[in-house]
Design a protein that fits this description.
heterodimer; A: alpha/beta; Rossmann fold; 2 domains; 15 strands; disordered N terminus; B: mainly alpha; 13 helices; about 70% helix; ABC_transp_permease (chain B)
Amino acid sequence: MKMGSKHITGLALGLTVSAFGSAAMASDCTTKIGTVLPTSVDWGRPIAETAGFAVEQVNEAGGVQGCEIEMVLRDSQVDPKVGVDAAKALVDLDGVQVLIGAVSSGVSMPILTSVTVPAGVAQFSCCSSSGAFTTLAEEGGTNGLWFRTFATSGVQAAVGAKVAKDQGYGSIAILYKNDDWGQDISKLIAEDLVDMGITVTASVAINDGQPSYRAEVTEALGGQPEAIYMALYPNEGASVVREWLSLGGTQNMVMANSLKSDEFRDNVGLQYLGNALGTDTASPRVASADAFVASYKERFESEPNGPGLSNSYDATMIALLAMEAAGKDATGAEIAASVSRVTDPAGTPVSADAAGFAAAREALTAGGSVMYQGATGNVRFDANGDVSAPAVVWSFTETGTQEKQYVTLQEVDALMMGD
Amino acid sequence: MIGLLSYAVFFTTVASILAIAVLGLNLQWGNTGLFNGGVVAFFGAGAYGTLILGSAAQPDQFGGFNLFYPAALIGGMVVAGLLAWVVGILTLRLRHDYLAIATFGIAVTFENIMRNAEWLSGGAKGIRGFEQPLRDAFGGGLAYNAAFLAFVVAALIAVYQFLQHLVSSPFGRLLRAIREDEGAARSLGKAPSRVRLTAFITGSVIMGLSGGLYATFYAFVSPQDVLPTLTFQIWAMLIVGGAGNNRGAVLGAFLIWGAWTASGWSLSRFAPIEAQLYTGSIQYILIGSVIVGMLLWRPQGLFPERLVVSQSGKPGATKKQGV
């Protein structure tokens, strides 16, 4: 009877947890929040674990509005049908007013349009990067219920254009990987470059795995650009650059973070990369980000290295802070409206842990507002629920890469505004 | 209570949409013996077709035809039918597993085209079509979902009746004759390749209808909706329900989709906290076990096909027995 022993373990664990819970805060009510994340996928499980970590900390601090938070976790299986069904069940059967999820844009979008927006539930995603959400929000399709803590490709494009301008390039050819990310970023940077008065001589798609890129490189070379911008992956990037240089192309290069690779440097040769500058989104240089790393290491005994972990933590924490700010039994719309009150740049700064949550509660009870300093920095959403992130400019060295410049969140925001 | 009702309406809508696709596959596999391993391509053709035809112009997006909704839905079915016609001409000479591999490849090709042809399908970010039709007339919410359910169920009943009629007609007998022994059918002066193609296209049009309804309901479709998983799900529904039996096909859709969602729900509710993170994987194992168990102990499905001798010549009599 394996099931039996499992049940008993579960029961015992449940008892322990509830005993611990009651000792810590003596709350006699629970509030449910829903999470739809791909827990059956290897990289999805840590994202869910990190969301649960935020909930643990909040419960340690006494929960939201005196109620313990119960996180109901459902697997999306990266299947839109399954994810939407899970979200619908959470909203209808469990009555959640806050939904965390999903990871893939293809799952988050139908959840948003067919579950959370019609039901007026606030949705927070850690990792959906598609530009379609911004468009939907601009058209008023999200009713202000949608937030994501993942910076869009717009940040890298804006910083890449800034680098080109700072270097004084007058014309640029763009070479991009032919997938959703590459298509997206190439369009964005082309717009940014034109806005800065830089001519885009060509925009050339690079397909994976070709033996030669001579045709593409010749096309890019045709406009005689002063520099090239590359949103490519290391393999194709190295082939393209070698053909580019052998045909007499310029060594002035700007690269996206995907080329930040030793493999690329070694295959091209460092001597040709003296004028190559890369961009990347950066972890913020704030104490709160370090605090998250420290508390994460303490809890999980490993570094938070993995896609979306700090984003997942912040998405969950901001959702819970907004619930606290919105008051008891708040609706999803009220919670969404309170997000600006907990991410207010003029508010009381609070840290990303149990103590921070308790401090936030005090400030909010006193009628004030809060500036949440999270794992991804001082998160602030724009009107479309999008966030920005700081960035770095880097170059290659003998042993790896070195940082040439740090672009703060404020500077990135200013660049993005300039669009 | 209202939440339970709301969820029940939602669940039934999705299950009914899937049941339509299972009925389409049942015509192809259950009745004609065509192993279609690319169900999702025809489902997807219907979904993308309907959204592209029915939506207003969007920047950087092919389409903007803004067709009246029923025309868009039928258009989606036509797109699925055209795809099936081309694929059918190319591949229907193949038999069994060869046909399965060829159609599977076509489904993967379809997904890749949808992922890359940004001008056509919105690429990886997907395509937002149009607001659900008549949404404002019902004020959205539960009333609208109930109305949409009624529409979907009506479509399901129409397809079911059509197929019941079809398989009990002489044409249905011809399909089964070809399935059982193509040489014998040919010796009686029938043209198996033409009939196979007809059955393949008809089944695919029905899958296209299912895809069109699905895309309408979510008002969105992306390459993630057309992954091979869906083909697998539709097949599981048909095998569990009973290939060759339309009632079985519908029941299989409800049962498998019910098991798929209920397992996730009950695991999230009853599994111990420490196991919560692993419920996704446990769910896969549970669903797989149900299908394997079914294949081991009841390979003919819950409602197996009933073969009848239909020589009586009275259509009413065969119809009654043939269910």
